[in-house]
Specification:
single chain, about 100 residues, mainly alpha, 5 helices
Amino acid sequence: MHSADQFKSTGARLEEMLATREQIGIDAFSMLELELSDLANMLVIGLGDRRRAVRWMCTRHRELDGRNGYQVIADGEAERLWELVEGLCGTPNAGAHAVPASA
């Protein structure tokens, strides 16, 4: 029975971590919508819905050297992210978007 309690506890902790991760992703995407609204909108339209766009931004991508979208922006490479998203969404328009000075 001790084993079952440990698995139950581990399962509950994992669920809590998942819920926290999801909330952080939603909060980060809300910030993206404020700072880089065109990029956020392109992701939502290109991926079909906001939930998928949130997940995409939080996922590490080989094309971004194993980083997620937020890490790329933080590293000052928003243009690189734009290029990937434009290719993903089929909107070739590189260089025609605003990137905030802080990005």
